[in-house]
Structures are given as C-alpha cells and as structure tokens.
User: Which sequence fits this backbone?
DNA sequence: AACACGATGAAGGATTGA
DNA sequence: TCAATCCTTCATCGTGTT
C-alpha cells in the first residue's frame, strides 16, 4: 500500500481481533491529536518542498509526501500536470513488479469504481497510468460517482464498500466482512478504517463531520471521493484550462492583462502548455440562459449527458459570478450538465445573476402571470417624482443580505443639499455610485433610502409580508431574502413540471431558505403532495411553515434542520413513505463564492459553500435508491 | 443595529503593433 | 485592418467588531 503512495502506515494503530476491530491506546492518542499530528507532518514536509499547498493537493490525491516532493523537485512548481504525470510514472514503476491489483486499488481508492478502472486499464494498458487517469476523469469519473442507468447494477455504494473492503482484507485476511458492516462500528473505528484504506485522516474526519455520526462507511467514502474529485479537478483543469460550455455563445478569446496581477498570476499566465487550449468558462451575454419569456430567442432542445437523465429531476442554483473554476467543478459533479446562467433582471426590476444546473425539459416553458414590474419606476411609481434625471438606473442591482445604513443615505443628503438645482458632476458621480452600490431609491428631495423588506419580497416574487413576523426581525428578513430565489425566474424553469405532475409532486427541497421553490411551484399551480424541506435556520423554517398553513396546503411538509442529518437511512424511510421524490431542488450557500465576501471568498472548499457536496451527496443517494 | 472593511473577475473601450 | 494588449468601469445571495 505504501509503495503505491497511500500515506503513512497506520497498521500499528489498528489491530484486528476476533471481535472485529480493537484500537490500541496509541492510536487513541494519535486520533485525539489528529489535527496537531497532521500539522506537524505538514510543517516538516513544507520544509522540504517550497510549496506546501501544492504538496497537499497531491498528497490529498493519495500520493506519498516523499514522492510528491521528488516530483515537484523534478518538474518545478509551475506545472501541476507534469507533476501529476511524474507521480503516476513513479507509482507505475513501483507497482509494476506486483500484479496490477495495486494499480487498480489505487484508482479505486481515488474514488473510481473497480469496474471503471478495469475498463480503463484494459483500454490504456497497465503502464499508461496517466492516460488511465485521464480516461477515468474525463469520461467515467462522474458516472462512477453517480451511476448511470447502465451501471446501476454494479456501481453502487455497496460496490464502494466492497472494493474498499478488498483493500482492507489485504491488511488482515482474518477479519470478517460482517464485523466491519456492524452498525455499531463506532466513530473511532470508522476513522481508523478510513485511514487504513488510504484516506487522509483530515479527509476522513471532515467526512464524518459532514455526514454525521450515523453515516455508513459507504456514505463516508462517497463523500471523500467527492472531495478528492474536486481536488483532482483542480490539478487537471487549471484555471485557464477550462473547457467552454456550449451556451457560451458570446465566447471571446481573452487573456488577462498583466498590469495589476501579482506574481502568482503571472506565473500562471506563463504556464502555457503546447497545444494549450486557452479556453475559459464565460458567462453568456445577454445572460438569458435557454431563453426568457419576453425575448424571441429561445433554445428549446438540448442533449443532456446520459448520466443526468432522471428521475428525479434536479435543480441546483448558485451565484453566477463565482470564483473561476467553481462552476466547472459543480457541473462535473452534477453529471456534466451545463449550467444555465440567467439574470433575473429579465424577470423583475432587480438583477440577480445566477447559474442553474438542472435536468428539466426546456421546451414549452411558461412564465408566471401577471408579469412583475420590470423597471424600478414601474415597481416604485412613487419614487418617480424624486428621481433625478442624472440617475439613469432602470434596474436595481442584486438584492443582497446587507443594506445601507443611515450614514450612507445621510452623506448623500448632505452632498446634495447645498445645490438648489443640478449638483456638480462630481457630486452626481458620488451619489450615483452610492445609489448603485446600496440599491437606494429616491423617496424625497435629496432623500434616498434602502428598500423595505416588503419591497424586496415583491421584487423577488414572494407574497407581501412573507418573511414578516414569526420571530424574524428586520435584519433577518433582509438576510433571508438576500439569500433567496427570484421566484419568477425559477418558476419559469419549473413550469414544465405542471403538465407532468397534475396530481401533485413530491419535493426534496435542500437549503430551502424562505421556500422559494415551494412558492414557485405553488404559484405555478403544481400541487405539493409531500415536501421535505431542509433548512438550518429556525426563523426560515417558521416562515415556510406559516406560509404552508396560510396557503392551505393539503400535502405534508416535513422539516429537517440540517442537511448533514439526512443520511441514507433517513432518506430511505422518507422515500418508502412517499414513494420517492420527483424533484430535488436547492441552492447551497454562496458565502464563500460571492464577490461581496472580502474575507472568506474561499470557493467550493469554503466552510459554507462546501455544502454543495451535500447537495450532490443527497441527490446521488436519491437517484440510486430510486433506481433500485 | 451600525459601521468599516477590498478582492475578483467580467466587460468593453482605447491603444499598440504586425 | 485586425488582433492582442492595456486600462477603466462595474457588480457582487458578506464578515467581523463594536
């Protein structure tokens, strides 16, 4: 195992006994100080290697630190592709003497199914580990992680469990499968087991934290595989190296200028591979996705990747302007479905640039009627008489979670007051900039103000006072609304469900917030049979619950506070009760993706935004269960 | 609840150079 | 003339402290 580059030997800490697994006192200490121990390793390795994050990335992929350091030394830090190739060559040569089972084991450990690996090895030959990985990543990885129909029989969680087990059995063949599958397998044992089969302790701990204490080994390995895929993605598809999406119709070849980029970025620019396709994901302009109700330009046909074809239907949402590479990664996880980027300014008076990954049909969409007001002046007619000619806005910017405070509006008043008629250009510019930044509207002479919560509700397509009461204060309301769907936009996409589910729909709503999905479906006239709503905020759950009662819903609403509580068992119980879900819908937190976050815009690895992987995990579980 | 707190990256016009 | 590069403008489901 070590020869294959799978981390340090932990066999000292793990002993098999007749009772299954017993843990020596040594290992308890190690695990209790897991973080510290890991930290120490990192420090010592970073002394050898100049770039510890690069090292971590490859170590995370399962190569040993020693090999990674050597590969980086050989190739320099700049080209992660070359480093990866070298690493693969190293491991190919070390495993060449043994059977190819170790090679297979390594790829299986990286999260690919045994079947897929065998196929890829057969296709590329044993010696060609780089092309095997390429094949696996490019064509098969996602199918493995989220089995398509043709693989449903062989490529399941039990498959994971089985292949992982084979590795485990190698360690000590006296152990018995039943003992490992014992539901009483405690947390420590699970952690040890995961590290033993080659996962990093940090990955395993994270998985256990995310998947919850009752999660099975299969769920845990699935989560880790998902995270590793993200890392592999980063390594194989560097930022400039992203394939374009086909709805990127306004794609223009661009390169960053170097005038204000740091050294790091400059290095990336220099790192041009031969035959490098300088392709990047660009947002469509205009940002209208497959079409909007008011524009004749419509796309009504698309070919979904086979792995994405339902059931259930899924609909995932997040901010369009995420850090580079994030949408590529999310798309790769969600069965290679291309995101549909839509700006809600085509549906209402406020911009809201969002990407949606879904497998819904796109023909015969219908908008909610009546159309909401589509300019600021239509939405807020009373502001018209105060609106200066030099404030040329007709649409508001994105409605965010924070609003301007009194000091902003007061500084505007003070800037304007000395001028009887048109203020000088510099003042106009200052005021205009503040108004745009904070989405201010004119409510009097020299007087601007942020929108009221009920005005935001209206713009986003919610009923008046939707977020009012039930313990929600003003701040809560802004926050919940800022994090919500724009109902008209989402409803337009969901409208195709109306004819498909005339007798009602079962919905799994993840990160429900204030119930944008539920409201959209209700307004479309799609009966809500059973809705399982997962939402961490109690205030939001109360809002959805009271809306549910106010609108006299006849179906069942089930609240779950935490996505991480939603494991296989829980899902199975829910699904056997309802007969499965027709739609899995949700937008995971954008905190670490949103441009306004100056402190922790950490991408998909960020604390909150990594919950995307829970969306993926749960969707994948539902899909698998519904295929069996 | 008020307040202070930049960075990232898209877009597009202007300039440069072959 | 065209394409690459330079440079400016703009938007952004936010966080931490008081």
Assistant:
């Amino acid at each position: 195992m070590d020869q294959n580059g799978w981390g340090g030997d932990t066999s000292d800490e793990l002993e098999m006994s007749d009772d299954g697994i017993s843990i020596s006192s040594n290992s308890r200490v190690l695990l209790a100080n897991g973080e510290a121990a890991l930290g120490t390793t990192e420090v010592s390795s970073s002394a050898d290697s100049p770039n510890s994050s690069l090292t971590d990335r490859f170590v995370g992929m399962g190569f040993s630190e020693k090999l990674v350091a050597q590969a980086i030394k050989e190739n320099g830090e700049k080209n992660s592709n070359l480093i990866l190739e070298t690493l693969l060559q190293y491991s190919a040569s070390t495993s060449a003497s043994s059977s190819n089972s170790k090679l297979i084991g390594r790829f299986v450990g990286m999260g690919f199914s045994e079947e897929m690996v065998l196929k890829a090895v057969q296709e590329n030959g044993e010696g060609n580990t780089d092309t095997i990985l390429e094949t696996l990543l490019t064509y098969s990885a996602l199918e493995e992680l989220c089995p398509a129909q043709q693989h449903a029989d062989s490529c399941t969680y039990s498959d994971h469990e089985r292949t992982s087990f084979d590795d485990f059995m190698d360690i000590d063949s006296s152990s018995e499968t039943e003992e490992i599958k014992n539901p009483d397998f405690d947390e420590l044992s699970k952690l040890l087991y995961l590290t033993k089969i080659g996962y990093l302790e940090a990955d395993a701990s994270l998985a256990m934290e995310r998947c919850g204490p009752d999660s099975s080994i299969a769920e845990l390995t699935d989560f880790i595989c998902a995270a590793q895929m993200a890392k592999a993605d980063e390594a194989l598809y560097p930022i400039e190296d992203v394939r374009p999406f086909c709805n990127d119709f306004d794609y223009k070849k661009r390169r960053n200028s170097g005038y204000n980029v740091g050294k790091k970025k400059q290095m990336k620019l220099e790192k041009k591979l031969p035959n490098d396709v300088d392709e990047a994901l660009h947002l469509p302009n205009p940002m209208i996705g497959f079409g909007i109700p008011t524009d004749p330009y419509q796309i009504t046909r698309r070919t979904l990747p086979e792995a994405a074809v339902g059931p259930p239907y899924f609909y995932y949402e997040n901010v369009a302007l995420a850090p580079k590479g994030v949408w590529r990664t999310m798309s790769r996880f969600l069965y290679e479905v291309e995101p549909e980027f839509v700006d809600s300014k085509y549906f209402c008076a406020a911009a809201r640039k969002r990407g949606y990954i879904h497998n819904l049909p796109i023909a015969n969409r219908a908008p909610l009627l009546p159309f909401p007001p589509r300019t600021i002046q239509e939405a807020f007619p009373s502001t018209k008489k105060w609106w200066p000619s030099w404030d040329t806005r007709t649409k508001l910017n994105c409605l965010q979670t924070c609003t301007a405070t009194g000091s902003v509006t007061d500084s505007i008043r003070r800037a304007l007051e000395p001028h009887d008629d048109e203020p000088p250009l510099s003042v106009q510019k200052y005021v205009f900039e503040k108004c745009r930044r904070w989405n201010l509207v004119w409510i009097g002479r020299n007087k601007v103000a942020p929108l009221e919560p009920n005005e935001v509700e209206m713009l986003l397509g919610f009923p008046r006072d939707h977020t009012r009461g039930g313990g929600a204060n003003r701040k809560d309301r802004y926050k919940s609304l800022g994090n919500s769907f724009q109902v008209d936009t989402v409803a337009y996409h969901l409208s195709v469900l109306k004819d498909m589910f005339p007798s009602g729909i079962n919905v799994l709503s993840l990160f429900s917030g204030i119930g944008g999905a539920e409201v959209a479906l209700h307004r479309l006239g799609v009966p809500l049979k059973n809705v399982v709503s997962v939402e961490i905020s109690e205030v939001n759950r109360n809002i959805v619950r009271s809306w549910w009662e106010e609108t006299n819903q006849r179906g069942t609403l089930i609240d779950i506070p935490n996505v991480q509580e939603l494991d296989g068992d829980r899902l199975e119980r829910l699904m056997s009760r309802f007969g499965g879900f027709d739609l899995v819908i949700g937008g995971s937190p954008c905190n670490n993706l949103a441009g306004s976050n100056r402190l922790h815009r950490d991408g998909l690895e960020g604390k909150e935004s990594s919950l995307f992987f829970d969306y993926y995990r749960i969707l994948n579980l539902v899909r698998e269960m519904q295929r069996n």
User: Anything to note?
Assistant: The mean pLDDT of chain A is 73.
